[in-house]
Amino acid sequence: MTAMAEFSNVQSESEMPEGGDAKRGFHHRMFLEPQEEKRNLKALVVKQVKKTCSCTPAKVKDCVLSFFPILQWLPKYNLKECLLGDIMSGVIVGVLLVPQSIAYSLLAGQEPIYGLYTSFFAGIIYCIFGTSHHISVGIFGALCLMVGQVVDREVLRAGYDLEPAAFSDHMDTAMHVNSTIAPVNQTSQKLLCDKTCYAIKVGATVTFIAGVYQVAMGFFQVGFVSVYLSDSLLSGFVTGASFTILTSQAKYLLGLDIPRSSGVGSLITTWINIFRNIHKTNICDVITSFLCFLVLIPTKELNERFKSRLKAPIPVELVVVVAATLASHLGKLKETYGSSVAGHIPTGFLPPSPPEWNLIPNVALDAIPIAVIGFAITVSLSEMFAKKHGYTVKANQEMYAIGFCNIFPSFFHCFTTSAALAKTLIKESTGCRTQVSGIVTSLLILIVLLVIAPLFYSLQKCVLAVITIVNLRGALRKFRDLPKMWHLSRVDTVIWLVTMASSALISTEIGLLTGVCFSMLCVIFRTQKPEAPLLGWVAESETYESLSAYKNLETKPGVVVLRFEAPLYYINKECFKSALYKQTGVNPALVKAAKKKAAKRMLREKEAGSGGNQTSISMELVSEPLGFHTIVIDCCAVQFLDTAGIRTLKEVCKDYNEIDVQVLLAQCNPSVRSSLMRGEFFKEGEDHLLFHSVHQAVDFALGAQEHSRICASKN
Asked: What is the dihedral of CA 196, 198, 199, 204, to 10 degrees?
């Protein structure tokens, strides 16, 4: 027995009050003492402001350590236990990340050097600000696709065509020009900033705005937005985006020189263009693509099948890139067969430059889904691996970290990043202990940037396309899980299918919005038409369960127990009524109407002077028993009530009382009880009729009925 709730004993029959107060003695009366009233809003605001604005050395230290988590774990770094695993995992991830960074650059509408820049900066910045020990932050295919679509649109709007063009030897000069003048036409703009230069300006601006959004979400602590992106929705989005990614890379597999389609229906448009130009297929690129698939897919499968036995996955992508580059260079495939190659990749870094401020109005809306997807994937992966390894991450700090991974690199010609599941799994499985592994990965990429990058000049673009497509296997394999997903949850499966189809067939942004809206509608529909089963008593217990779900349950004579499994509010109030009438088999309005009709008929018969036999039959019809005297509504699943819900309960109780059936509520949570009190649901003096359990309410109903029967027999 707690200090806040006290239950009186059941009164004996001889102690029961007479008349209307008799009912009060048949249940454990529950006395709840409310908490003290909260102070007024002004006092709470003043207290919070004082707490926030107060500045002490300890508070400053905590704030700095919280904002820069590296200052907490780096001084405690255990060289003996962690260094070897971090170096090993960092090198392995770096080896895998180099060819992927080059390949995914094409997906984002950029040249290969920018993908290397992006991977280099992301690892260092996340190490400083991130709280996860294991996730790998870098290039993510779906985000690259979304950035690439914005880049294509803005490049076309600026007057450039979307025809693919190989690097020129003078690309460095064009890229080093720092111009913030918006292009008016293609001819004048080429003198200041060519298509390649303008494309990275667009990508960097989108990345900057997305990072600002993510930092703002962390500052205002609105990470709850990610709850609207369920696992099934994110999975469907990634799978749908994978189809678009595959489609965008198909032209490189065939060596076709066609413009990249963007906007609504880009997937269908791209395939139409491919089939229209299929006769222009480059046989050399097709053979190279086939050979790369022949090597990459079996080796990747072996890596996955024997990952528990392998100390490190086979770096097959790097092997393929090196071999393909040598073959292309020695065989002069570009000069002899016209194969499209990566072209000149400069060494070193370009001077930093700010985003294109004039482009912000054009791309501000596009950056919203990019920001939301980026932080949702990062936070979910961080929490997943933190739970697995027994530590905690801070969701808001993770939003700061991924935001800064986009803001700062955007000044160094980078595009959007987030955590990536495949690389994170490899990082974890190869001995990663801390984010020092991310520093090692960045150092490896730095070596490539400073020394090795120009050696990839002869690398065919079809090889990069094959690497991108092979890495989509995980997302495309989700189709194999559909039967299991359907068995577990049909609603989640439908959400997955709708999000996947709309992301692939319409566009990635519209697909994401469609998935969010559809999943919210599913929640509304599920509360609009919830289950409302009848309950039965589990023998030798105080438990009541669904009669339709379990066997061997007992029902108490004269008592109907029903559970409403949803909040009761304006959307489902009529559903609540119809479920109650259906399950009890009695609609009070129809019963009252039948009684009135019978009474009128009796009156007419009496006035007409008909026989007394007919009148007695009509009286029997009017007073025919309903089969029950009490309805107990189990409210354990009713999270809240609104004004429409309170009004509905009042109407139901009133209507059933008029036909001599009482309605009792059981297992109401504090929020529902408070709403009932404020809504004046109880009559004066009856606020104690709050039943702690269904069993208690049923006992009260049976006791009250027995007492009424005894009183009637005495009279």
From this structure: 130
